[in-house]
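Sharing a chain and its predicted structure for anyone who wants a worked example. Both blocks are below, sequence first, tokens second.
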Amino acid sequence: MEAIKIPIEQLTMKRNKQLSALTKDHLQGNAGEQDKLSYKGRILILDDDVMMLNILERLLTERGHEVILSSNPFEVISIIKENKIDLAILDLILPKSNGYEITALIRKTEPELPIIMLSGSAITESKIKALKIGADDYITKPFEENELIARVERTLTRYISLKALSVEDGLTGAYTKTYLWRKLKEIKNAYTRNGKIFSVAFVDIDCFKEINDTYGHLAGDEALKCFVSTLKSSLRATDYVFRFGGDEFIVLFPETTKENAHKVLERFRDNESYIQCIKSKTGVLIGCSFSAGITEIKGVSDTVEKIIERADEALYQAKAQGKNRVIIYDSCD
């Protein structure tokens, strides 16, 4: 893969590609597990040494990883957030900063992201300081290429394995995508056995990009947390909220018709608690709405993939009709 050079244009993922990728990774059973074992990561490399950037780029792209290069330590947080970085490699000595400071900064918003620090210093105290601040590994330059690759890929594998085991999104408290697919298949199997209907809603925050652009990513994080906490308070204990990606969420309503799920989300849409929560966290009164698409199981031959696709299509229609509304798939025509 070719490296992506900074400055980086904001990445926008087409919804159909996202659904296709997630279906491949999470709905193919053992094949999906094999994909995780051969996972190729998106790696950020921060260094002001052009030669070192080129060496690391070559080594890691040859292994199939996607590499993002930067020499500006003050862009790191935005790069991580906008590009879903899986691992950061930081040089210890940086212009107007250092690897210690950047590691500490990353840890404030990304407590689980793997960080490897590179340094020409083999002093034990430097290694200990890096690890105490939050680095996962410390590699001394010059390094042996095969050893560096092994340590990078070991760190990546550990991170991906832990993410796969987790059921809760660290930022919002919603359930993870991995758990979404497991739970959907479980509910679908229960329907096949006992005929208990269920509904699924695909939900998207209408104003999330504007919050990030106007008030910054920290305010955006608070908006996400407020959305999930207030949404959960409007649901039953038996309902589930999953973070699908970015500002998109899936709500699973067991033993609920699409009409009743619609009533629940409409009540939440009229609730001011979300906006008040954002104000209490950020000090800013932000008018913010959401859109949602709903569908329900359509028989034993229905599939998890089709259910998600229908809910997504209904969400698309809600957006196309002006946002700030909840649409049932059957009424999309």
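Comments welcome. The CA atoms of residues 102 and 246 lie 24 Å apart.
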